[in-house]
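**User:** I keep going back and forth on a fold encoding question. It is easy to fool oneself when nobody else works the same problem. Could you pick a protein and write out its sequence and tokenised fold? Could you put it straight underneath, so I can go through it closely?

**Assistant:**
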Amino acid sequence: MSEITKPDEGGAEVCTPEQDEVRQAYPTQGGGDSLPPDVGAADPTDEVADHHPTDDALISDEGTEPDTFPRAYVEDLRKEAAGYRDKAKDRDEIAQRLQEALVAATGRLQDPTDLPFDEALLADPDALTAAIDALLEKKPHLASRKPQGSIGQGVSAGADSVSLSGLLKRGA
């Protein structure tokens, strides 16, 4: 006999209308008379079913009702918290832009976004340099391609006067 159903005086099991609907929806194999374990397990009229676990946290040790606050105060707190959440969203973007600026200032990478974002690199310049070194060791093609030194182009220091013999000497 199932723990959900109760026998009447004659020994036959009596079911509630809800249990009859469940039995029809979930027929058992072999003619058994069992219901799914969650059906009929808790009676909604029981005091236990109406109890909410959060009620214990709200009631103090003396058994008094929880403190309530004016609606305007709660709305102000919610608005303040929303403002802090908006600022926190911008913080991540600003930190990423700061790292890109620090990497660009070194001039060692062609594209500063090639170095993955790591918040620890913002506070420690040695760690930033080490991270750039490690990235360039793995992927040397990411290094800056900006020419340095004298490459024979651009403005050069020339003589004050132009002489034909000086031009011939330089060209020889």
